[in-house]
Amino acid sequence: MITATDIEKKKPLAGLSESGAYQKLLAFASLIALLIGFSIASPNFMQTSNMIAILQATSVNGVLAVAATLVIITGGIDLSVGTLMTFCAVIAGVALTYLGMPLLLGVAAAIAAGALCGLCSGTFVAKMKIPPFIATLGMMLILKGLSLVISGTRPIYFNDTPGFDQISRGSLIGEVFPALPIPNGVLILFLVALAASYILGRTVLGRYTFALGSNEEAVRLSGVNTDAWKMRIYALAGGICGIGGILIASRLNSAQPALGLGYELEAIAAVVIGGTSLSGGRGTILGTLIGALIMAVLTNGLRVLSVAQEWQTVVTGAIIILAVYADMARRKKAG
Amino acid sequence: MSKLVDMTGIEKYFPGVHALKSVQFDLVPGEVHALMGENGAGKSTLMKILSGIYQRDGGTLRIEGQEVSPKTPREAQDLGVGIIHQELSLMNDLNVAQNIFIGREPRKSFGRLDEAALNAQTAGIFASMNLNLDPRAPVGSLTIAKQQMVEIAKALSYRSKVLVMDEPTAALNDAEIAELFVIIRRLKAEGVGIVYISHKMDELKQIADRVTVMRDGEYVGTVDAADTPITRIIAMMVGREVNEEPLDVPDLGDAEVSLEVSGLSRGKEIQDVSFSVQRGEILGFAGLMGAGRTEVARAIFGADPRDSGEIRVHGQNVSVKSPKDAVRAGIGYLSEDRKHFGLATGMNVRDNIALASMDLFLSKGGVLNDAGMAQAAQSYIKQLGIRTPSDTQEVRLLSGGNQQKVVIAKWLLRDCDILIFDEPTRGIDVGAKSEIYRLLEELAGQGKTIIVISSELPEIMRLSHRIAVMCEGRLTGILPGGKNTTQEDIMHLATQRAAAMQVTGTLQ
């Protein structure tokens, strides 16, 4: 008779959320500690307006980090999320301001452009077998260049599209609960995260995202068309970057073609702080959200304490190294 | 009786290799048919053709009388052929049920997963196997034996009529093997045909009904497992003639013992291994894959940690904690995987030869003495007969045999007088092989101490003054070299499993 006394009790949902749980907890505790620390250090920090500013600042990076999480769980990396965001913002500008499309159509065009670019990256990686780092590095530069070319290196303003700035800056929640004027950008981040979480945990696409990162060859030998699924994941990530593009364009009420470089690294940092393994197979959206919040709280808190911008960057770098070191140390102990 | 599988005249070519030469194999329902042969005999290739991973270049494959040509593993699965690979192909980050149904998850609309159905179906398969395992347990947390059970459950979930098991017991201990055999017997009773690839002779007698032996990509014969003595099966496996010049075993007399290893142990992989080698001696290490020969070499070299054991070089106890310590004591290790561990293939011959001895060529201020390196490299190119247009040729452009010589030069320059060669002729063509053999003999003649690890018996017999044989981490015997030792003697020791192996930590 075979017995399996070595089985751990598992939570009902998927069992995928388990692996990064420790670091997620650690990340969450760090977030709380940061919030408490900054509140003590500065009475201005805990103001509702400041909290909302933090959330607003999280929204764009958070959405990009969700996209990066999907790709990273497959064992890949996406360096193009930042410039893809900008590219999509420019596409929205062209569609709405230059072509005069209706609002919804313009937004849809931007998101579709994002998905299409993601599909290109996915094709480079899956079909042409270019390492994800290189494929998306190339994509990053291509998109940066295309954004400048299409826009003629000038910002495109959305003054002719009433309501566009409300996508990010308006507050549906504030209309219902005037005490909580949480901007729509935050609401959108929340919805994107919820959807991504659902896809990862409950759908075939999500299952293959983890499976690819865990052992791609085994998935292939199980008769799964790994290339096609990988391309779909990159396309989905691209579409989410498109939403990020809409958010940033709405917040600035303009598409700034020179923007975007550096966003990919902030997104990846949020993913890593949130406990997603860069070697693939493990990760959660909730962790990524906490990671993005930690970065926003840090930046905001240090600014409230009047710490110079230069030092904020230094601290962020140190936090990333600490977060990953904590995870490594734990994993080594667990053996 | 109708045959489940009938393969006849199977041919397979790989670039430069005729891997399968008109091979035949058949399987009837409810039998365990063992497939035997030395490493490289073509067993795995044949089974990969059956399971759709490779396509055959000739011959016919019939499954239940129908001629078929599965193009992908999926097509083979649909035909009822499941394979459990030597290296488990599971996704450690997913749980048991998710692994079993990867690629055919029960779905609801819009690509949503039906997790409840997934777990229920998995539980159903486990129940039919009489296996008590939680479908939601993460695979990474299971023991190797349990993971093997998951692989079997996965294969069965395709309603497999044919189950190919490639060395399923390689990583299992006795208790776990017993569990596996219980499952196999149950499957057999249900009419599943099982192809069982293994090197372990005693297992055959326990589990197999028929045995087919392959050698060098050719079919040798099929015999009844119960009635055929093991010696006969071994003779079928090694049957080839060794048409090499006879070995001249020198009388070393009381030459100094240059390397003495005692009580070397690490977990299950190395169990209390002790031996010594004299100056000028070539000691061969024979054994089947996974016997622990490479592990022993790496432990001596300090590349892997060891639990216990002493290493004495020229009578002095040396503390080897890292390869650096070993190199300082004069031990060089030439890995079987030259491209990964032996050579910087993108660099040139000169740099590779100097790689382990850079300190010899450092002048004041840390500048490299390139002229000195060139001189050293050229002298070894001449001495070892490395065929290269110049010492600045990139190593990756050399042939396998010449690459191996570059690695040898590297260690000679480092003044290593104890050289451990792990599969020295892997990937080297036949002509270059004898050249490497002569080189090893010359080195021994010059008073170097040589250890050769090889999976090719003819190579071991051609080179070794003495032959150490390992099986499952233990040194099962040391045989004299030369004519009096036969391949059968070596195979006996190489398949001699411990009578009562300790059952170690199966259930954590």
The first-to-last residue Cα distance of chain A is: 29 Å
Give, in spatial order, the strands making up the sheet with the most strands of chain A.
Answer: 1-2
Unreliable spans of chain A are 1-19
Q: What top-tier CATH class of chain A fits best?
A: Mainly Alpha
| SSE topology string of chain A | HHHHHEHHHHHEHHH
Q: Strand content of the residues of chain B, in percent?
A: 15-25%
| Largest interface, Cβ cutoff 8 Å | A-B, 36 and 43 residues
Count of individual domains of chain B? 3
Q: Give the fraction of residues assigned to helices of chain B.
A: 25-40%
Ranges of chain B where pLDDT stays below 50 over 5 or more residues in a row are: 500-508
What does this molecule look like?
The complex is a heterodimer of chains A (335) and B (508). By secondary structure, chain A is mainly alpha-helical. Chain A has one domain (21-31, 43-334): ABC transporter involved in vitamin B12 uptake, BtuC (Orthogonal Bundle). Chain A has 13 helices and 2 strands. A two-stranded antiparallel ribbon of chain A has the order 1-2. In chain A, helix 1 runs parallel beside helix 12 (285-304) and helix 3 runs parallel beside helix 5. Chain B is of the alpha/beta class and 508 residues long. Chain B has 3 domains: 5-238, Rossmann fold (3-Layer(aba) Sandwich); 252-330 and 417-508, 3-Layer(aba) Sandwich (Rossmann fold); 340-415, no CATH class. In chain B, 32% of the residues lie in helices and 24% in strands. In chain B, the strands form 4 sheets. Chain B has a 6-stranded mixed beta sheet with strand order 6-7-8-3-9-10, with helices on both faces. Chain B has a 6-stranded mixed beta sheet with strand order 16-17-18-13-19-20, with helices on both faces. In chain B, strands 2-1-4-5 form a 4-stranded antiparallel beta sheet, with helices on one face. In chain B, strand 4 (58-63) and strand 5 (66-67) form a beta hairpin. Chain B is globular and about 75 Å long. Chain B starts with a strand and ends in a 14-residue tail after the last helix. The chains are: A mainly alpha (335), B alpha/beta (508). Chain B: Keywords: ATP-binding, Cell membrane, Membrane, Nucleotide-binding, Repeat, Sugar transport, Translocase, Transport. Chain B: Residues 5-241, 247-497 form the ABC transporter domain. Chain B: It comes from Ruegeria haliotis. Chain B: This is Sugar ABC transporter ATP-binding protein. Chain B: GO terms for molecular function: ATP binding. Chain A: This is ABC transporter permease.
